[in-house]
Write a structure and sequence with these properties.
The chain has 106 residues and is α+β, with helices and mostly antiparallel strands. The chain has a domain of 62 residues. The protein has a 3-stranded antiparallel beta sheet with strand order 1-2-3. The termini are far apart.
Amino acid sequence: MAQPQQPVQINIEIDPAIAEGSYSNFAIINHSQAEFILDFTRLLPGLTKTKVHTRIIMTPQHAKMLLKALEQNISMYEGNYGSIKVDGVASEQMGFHLNRDQVQNK
């Protein structure tokens, strides 16, 4: 009988510049059969142009794992701090209005 495999411990290092983080208040998600592309940007009130500052490309399997991890963490967050309200908040109330046609690849 085969012995159960021990979980592999992964040590992750983070560069200090990356550890500072990057703020995003808007994400654009696209996909093909082979990959998901997550573009992160900051939309500021009164400005009509922004740039993608971070692009993450991942396999569909990793995108699904990310979704599950986010669902689990949001559930824990709401258990500690209460429900996160997002229903009924139009983009205009956040200070911007974005049409899908305005998103350009450059």
